[in-house]
User: Fold this.
Amino acid sequence: MIIPIVRTALLALRRDRVSLVLSFVVPIAFFSIFAAVFGSQRDTMPKIKVIVVDQDQSRASRQLVKALQIDGSLIVSTTPAPTKNQPAPPEFTAETAEAAVKAGDVSVALIVPRGFGDHPISFGPDATGTAIELLNDASDTIAPQMVSGLLQKAAMTAMPVTMAEQGMKYSEKYLGTFTPEQRRNMNANLDQLRQIEKRQNADGGTGAAAGPGGGIIVVKTRTVVGENKNNPMLSFEAAAIGVMFLLFTASGSAGALLDEAESGALDRVLSSRVNMNGLLAGKLVFNILLAFTQLTLMFLWAWAVFKIDFFSHIPGFVVMGLSTAFAVAAFGMLLASICRTRAQLGALSTLLILVMSAIGGSMFPRFLMPEAMQKAGLWTINAWAIDGFEKVFWRDLPVTALWQQVSVLLAIGIVLFAVARRVARRWEYA
Assistant:
């Protein structure tokens, strides 16, 4: 009895070739995405974008900035990217650098203050080194630590003469005055270091080889985004997970078209006064309301149980929620129009939604992905929706700042619904 049952099931699966193929493609595709995200990080981490403002403009500060620019782990900017209206923008200031961090353009900005060249290092009991200010976005907990460590490395490698001079000064201060012979030897060593530094600067190098130790540069960290929020990361998680499940809900709800077509109910509806335009528009509106209600309940639960700030962000939430609901509803309508059976819809929707969620940031923050994966994520509904909710709940930006995300989501919804309407003509002539 078992063998005939297994044979019958295999024949049924074989007849539905789309489901057969997708059943094996889904796990392979999903594995490939995570392998691309995590496997590439074995040898290299994504480069960190950082803004550097050099207020001191001394020899030591210029050497430090140059060393940071050469470091392969960082993408250092001292001026904004040129635009059509401003082809040669001025250098960043402390104010514009802080604004860039708040806007999410970068996660870290470094401010090298005036007087850094006079006291670049912290040494001895009084630790008199001039502090470099590190501005950070609390949503990225990795970047500030990496930049702080790379800053210490850059200081050790980029300023050998400055380090030696400061070391002599502190040694003489705490250990006593040098003898004339000791001072001559030290000056001779300093001259050699200066010659090495000149040659390496001419060759584009960063100075002497790195020495041991750490924390020789004083770094004062200041969080400019997310410091005084209640469970701010939970709002990001609610948006990320919410969008993924909205896609599943929309595709499942839109699958009612396939049930109606199979039962003959769709033919009876189309034979009445209702045409295909009205039918699809009605189902689209229902799916939008369903998705928006689901998203609202998720955020209300997060507010009631996990104390996220929700009611102070109602306008932005409504705008982003409706835009996202429209895009996912149109996505579900398109899948239902393309597929022939519920089995095909289930397999295809699972593949696409999991892929979109993986590269779009619903499962893993996009800023930790390789640059190529971050760009690929912009082809998904998830990425644009999450970016919009991040602006609302994390950066406290006004509704007007959401125009880009809202425009893209509305455009996605319009295009997908138009394609779904065209594909759905097969039911009119069936």
Remarks:
- Confidence is low (pLDDT under 50) at residues 202-214.
- The CA atoms of residues 54 and 112 lie 5 Å apart.
- The longest strand covers residues 48-54.
- The chain has two domains: 16-40+229-428, 48-225.
